Amino acid sequence: MAAAQGRLSDGAGGMDDAKGTEEEARHKGSHHGSGGSGGSTAPPAFAAAVEALRAARLRPQIEVEATRAPQRLAPHAYALEAAVVDGDEDLADGRLVLLHDPAGHDAWHGTFRLVTLVRAELEPEMAADPLLPDVCWSWLTGALQARGLTYGEPSGTVTRASSHYFGGLSARPSASQIEIRASWTPREGLGGVPDTAAHLASWCDLLAQVAGLPPAAPGDASVVTLPQRRGPQSR
Contact 197/178 with Cβ under 8 angstroms? Predict the structure, then answer.
């Protein structure tokens, strides 16, 4: 799986590439192991939230697997990477991280935080659309709202990038990529546990939209797909 490997930082409640944030320094050395901390030493609320992620059933075009969680962002973290797959080719990929601080976090306004990175390649004409960043952000918020999820403190960036090749690489066609980095605080339910399975499903809805797949629920007018995305990329 060629899932997104960009560096995740939750900083002051948002998504950025800053190194050595105060948040990281505060929790340095408190992160638990590979793949996250969902074992016997984790708080019950976090363990339940992680188990819900593991048990979630998702649309078959999306391959999801656990990966090493980023360090120093919170006392407890669990991470997943995913790819939207068409045969042996990836249409889009991403990473979703669940953070938990039992003591609470002022910037989050809660004890849980979800952080994501999603990316896909686009046709240059689509990437040049000045409205594209606003549309991509609306895909994220719309995916959460479509499943009736309550959340707070959303923060993020939408980035367009173009690559042009020269010299020995001049035979390669130009490429354009969209990247969505975001974080939000899920509402905590019974026992202080957020509905992480529903948030994961919403995140997969976002991945599907970025990849240009039709919506899982036909007739949902809130779902917009990319009609001019670049063809599938070799895995």
Answer: no
Burial class (CB in 10 A: 0-12, 13-18, 19+), 51: middle
Question: What share of residues in the chain are helix, strand, coil (percent, to 5)?
Answer: 25, 35, 40
Per-residue model confidence (pLDDT) at position 225: 40
Quote the pLDDT of residue 222.
38
Total residue length of the chain: 235
pLDDT at 72 over 90: no
Task: Give the torsion sign (CA, 100, 104, 108, 109).
Answer: positive
- Token pair of 190, please? 């019974």
* Alpha-carbon span 205 to 213, nearest angstrom: 9
Lowest average pLDDT, out of 86-90, 100-104, 117-121, 174-178, goes to: 86-90
Residue 49 pLDDT more than 90? Answer: yes
DSSP string, 31-50: --STTB--STTS-HHHHHHH
Q: CA–CA separation, 11 vs 19, rounded Å?
A: 9
d(CA 152, CA 168): 48
Does the global pTM surpass 0.85? no
